[in-house]
Design brief:
This protein is mainly alpha-helical. It has helices spanning 4-28, 35-47, 52-59, 63-75, 97-118, 123-137, and strands spanning 50-51, 79-83, 91-95. The protein has a single domain (4-137), classed as Orthogonal Bundle (Arc Repressor Mutant, subunit A). The protein contains 6 helices and 3 strands, in the order H-H-E-H-H-E-E-H-H. A 3-stranded antiparallel β-sheet has the order 1-3-2. It comes from Paenibacillus baimaensis.
């Protein structure tokens, strides 16, 4: 069993890291986009149109939060809603050309931010972090 003090120290280190990354993102981010908005644009570019429920599952957000998020991206002209001919009630979100251009900028900014934090680590250490993060994130607590 892991020592409780070690777990608390890990929690504090993770909190500090995520806070630093968030603050750093704000400095690198010249376009007012949040990391989640950037992630959504990336998913839409890679996977094509998605339903809000699919996006909510990906991001572990509520459908209401996705509606708010998508409304902001739609207002900015980066995402649009599409309805299918088969069922007009079903709404998909898709990335626009302006969204693709914004995504290019976001990718450059995100790369600079990630390299700022992790660029000096050995590839082996990065692989360990990836494995550990995935193990924690995808662990089924039933």
């Amino acid at each position: 069993m892991t020592d409780h003090r070690n777990l608390l120290e890990l929690e504090e280190a993770a909190r500090q890291l995520f806070r630093k990354i968030s603050v750093s993102w704000s400095k690198f981010n010249e376009n007012g986009m949040t990391p989640v908005q950037g992630f959504l644009l990336e998913r839409l570019e890679i996977e094509g149109p998605l339903k809000a429920s699919q996006i909510a599952d990906m991001l572990c957000y509520t459908p209401g939060a996705i509606t708010t998020l998508s409304d902001k991206l739609i207002a900015a002209g980066l995402v649009e809603r599409e309805r299918t001919d088969e069922d007009r009630r079903v709404v998909y979100l898709s990335i626009t050309e302006a969204g693709r251009q914004m995504l290019g900028t976001i990718r450059l900014q995100r790369r600079a931010n990630v390299e700022n934090f992790f660029g000096d680590l050995a590839d082996e250490d990065i692989q360990h972090l990836i494995r550990i993060f995935k193990e924690v994130v995808y662990k089924d607590k039933g």
